[in-house]
Amino acid sequence: MYFHRVNYRSPVINTDRLGFRISHGADSQTSAGGEPTNGPVRLLAGSSMAMGIGATCDQATLASRLWTTHAPSRPWLNFAGRSHSSAQELLLFLFYRHLLPPVEEIVILSGLNNLALARLPASQRGDDGAFFNCGDYFGQMDKLKSQFRTHHFGSGGQQTGGDEPVRPLQVRIEDAAALTIRHLESWKQLCAGTDTRITFVLQPLATWVRETAAPQERRLFDELDKISNFWELFGDIATRETARRYAELLQLGCEKIDVNFLDINPLLANSAADDSWLYVNRAHMTDYGLDLVAQLLASELDLSR
Length: 305
Fold this sequence. Notes:
- The chain has 305 residues and is an alpha/beta fold.
- 43% of the residues lie in helices and 12% in strands.
- A five-stranded parallel sheet has the order 4-3-5-6-7, with helices on both faces. Strands 1-2 form a two-stranded antiparallel sheet. The chain has a two-stranded antiparallel sheet with strand order 8-9.
- The two termini are 37 Å apart.
- It comes from Micromonospora gifhornensis.
């Protein structure tokens, strides 16, 4: 329900006055809420993988690896938000685009959260999709409504969804893809009249990339499975077949609105050695994994130009 802490400082992660993570080039650093950058910039938008959860430092994030090594001709701003849905990613750009110099390129690395959140009940999804922790939010709003009847906080009762069954997988895939495309069309409209190129990249989930984890990943995943319910909640969306069906719908939708699309999962599968340590958990990558993704993005999207 929140953006990142502002002006946070640590050896691992640092944020500016608005909460954007700082990105690094070869000899400088910048952020959306920091000192204005001269000339065109490029944005790396999306959710927590794009933001850099898993990276050991700001210099290891995708935006920094692109700016430092793989596509250094323009500064890259980290414009991503942890746990964001496509609606929240769009709102972030809408709220803060006035701070930006001309934007040459927008790469949105996302897609998993919309699919994960599609399992929530209709009362939490609403018209624009659910968001993480929305059950807590709606529950608190219901309490306020019961205390202050003269105020209106939302659309009425049953916000938690009760015992509504989870919808069939194909319905959730279609709904997540349609919601993503709808918000991508708004990105495009916000950039109308500019030369900004927008590319949506379906982010790589560990189980979408390869069926057998590397030894280090397996030890981490086994430990995490002892304290989480990942397979109960997300087992049906974690298969390569789900990724394929989801990517097909996203690609068709992007073609209709003339937005570039890239599914990086098969590219990463073909590029990484079977024993390479890519992930710290199934959704977030090691420094090596992030650098490999940055390299693939630069190559596939011709970002070195």
